[in-house]
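Chain A, query sequence.
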Amino acid sequence: MANEKLYLYPLWIRIWHWLNAVLFIVLLLTGISMQYSNPENPLLISFELSVQLHNICGIALSINYLLFIFGNLFTSNGKQYKMKTKGLFKRLYDQSVFYLFGMFKKQAPPFPISLENKFNPLQRFIYSTAMYIGFPIIIASGIAMLFPEIIIPQLFGVSGLLVTALLHVVIGFILSLFLFIHIYVCTIGSSIISNFKSMLTGWH
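Chain A, predicted structure.
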């Protein structure tokens, strides 16, 4: 039912989610500062402070990611990230059409939120890709650059450190786009702040 109140976000999910958001934003800002400035000409934050904050928040994000993994392994939340391949493209198409046209015409969503399905098919596909592919890559590449001695010296004739750094930056850029899109989609609710409030209280 549209007016039914659902408890969708247990405390551990809310803690993980807000920690993840804060840490990722700090990593984004410090990453930009390191990428587009030099020690003599800081962009957002001093270069030295950016490096320190980036390393600390990167380690914290990695530990927080373990909370996500173990939480999904040992609670029912893990099923929210499982996708059925049969009819997947049709479901993705239907949800995309709703986002592009239907919601502006006040049409009912094709996949209403329920306790069994907190995510619509497009959300499930994007969130699963981000959390189970994007995050492991950016964490692994970040750890590798923190301990560069473990990186393969050469990869197809190219510096292994350069390849690792480029991979880290590219995945970081893609996840940053995901963050901005995620924030925008969160404003699509009964009110602009209703979905943000849900992640504070747990109730949708």
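Residues 180 and 186 are 10 Å apart (CA to CA). The chain has six helices and two strands.
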